[in-house]
Sequence to fold (322 residues):
Amino acid sequence: MRLLLLACLRARTGNATTAARIQSHLHAAGHICVLKDAFMYESQTEIANLISTDKFDGALAIHLYKGGRLLQGSRIPFGIIFGGTDVNEDVKCEEKHRVMGAVLEEARFAVAFTVKMKELAAAEWPDARKKIYVQTQGIKTTPKETFDWYRFLQNAGIPTDTGSLHVFLLICGLRRVKDPLYLVDVFSDWHRKEPSIHLGIIGPAVDPLFTSEVKEKVKRAPGVHLLQEMPQDDLHAAMKRCFAVVNSSISEGMSAAILEAMDLNIPVLARNIPGNAAIIKHKETGLLFSNPQKSTESLLHEDGDLHYHICTHRSLLCCPRV
Fold:
């Protein structure tokens, strides 16, 4: 089959990573899959012309609104893969809710990464329940063997001449739904007490205005560093060297960064939201927190001994490969 795959393809974001992985699997299964950026098209007519010109047999879209709305009225069968923000956030907008319901009605099937996501979608559009299938994500990491960790630290402004470092990485596109500022104050306070603690926020500037807010906040927060986005194999190598990966999102479909950390056997510290709780069992495959203070308290022993938990969590929370 010749398939069109529509997704938001901003470089080094979760949707782009997911789309590339789906394309790779479809190619391996013997299909032709053409990946197109949904942001490059403004109307259903443009997509209809693309489908006609390139003679596609079917289509997939990641994100019920951003990708799916472009396939409305399509002359070929199509399926939808929920992105996360569509079901978690966009449903709050009446117009988007209406459009997404119409898209889901036309779609042959829809895929949710978790049971919770399916239930959320089915609650909004009950008639679609039978066409929604749960398929958890697979993941593959490719850490670069020649990655220079010490140069990475130097570029981040993290001193390398101290005895021990405990670097946490928060990996996300800089936009409000990812809430990267949620933990800045508590990590900065922790750094003042324990200078070995550093939080690195790394990801593309998806929202320029919000990115400016993040930059200003980080400037006033010792121990917190805003890092340049980097190629995926370098990022995986950096994750492999850090103490833990952090997630503070307001909502998630299924975080690729968390899955990648698990694949690399790196502990995960994540905000207790449905998308994260679907893949993390508290104190077994990661740590879930409900407020900023709990994020650091969960890493401290009763006597406040960080070193104790460095050893404990590295042994207990390094997850089996997923």
